[in-house]
Known about the structure:
Distance between the termini: 68 Å
Mean pLDDT: 88
Shape: elongated
Structural class: mainly beta
Strand order of the largest sheet: 1-2-3-5-6-7-8-9
Amino acid sequence: MKKLINFLFVVVCVIMTTACESELKDMAYSYTNKSNGDVTVIRLYKGGKVLINKFTKWDVEDKDEIYMYKGKNIIGASYSRIDSIINIKNEYEVFDKIIVQKDGGIRYKADVYRPDKRFKDIKPVGKYGGKSYESKGDDGNMYMCFIDENTVLLATEGGLDYYDYEISNGKILIIGKNLIFKPEGDNFLVLESNWTSLVMKYKGMVDDYELWSYILSDFEGDF
């Protein structure tokens, strides 16, 4: 009986150890190409989505904080995990794999990726961080996403760019764009303008995958 208890104890310990070793951290994993300094980053999101983005040596040099959305996208897809295997898939098939290693790394292709705190997600901080708004109408379409408490993305059919913003007297000032938005209730931002009527409707909170899927993928190669 004592031997059986000892055996079961060992089995439980092995199972727990294996599970801990194979656990993924909720953060980006990166691999640096030693020949040119380029960095490839894998970010697995809890909703079953994955982004794989590439950054040049100059994108990351001497930087402690780098936003995931600024990388050049290689893969944006869904994934599912079975034990230590992460299957990357599109609507029809599994087309790639990531292996979760017991040492805390993940293997993609022939390279091992390690957790990297430098690469950040869109931050749901402050009053607007992580929120997105959209306007569709005769005056054209506009999409707005607040990356964090300081930066906002503005996208129109003609292109997109990132701007600093600040909140003053309850209004949102887009610095460098001369745009001022006034909140109307909980779901609308109204542009203060004498020549056009633009109302941005709240679309929801977004992460980097959703921003890439909905907006950035349409402009790949343009920025």
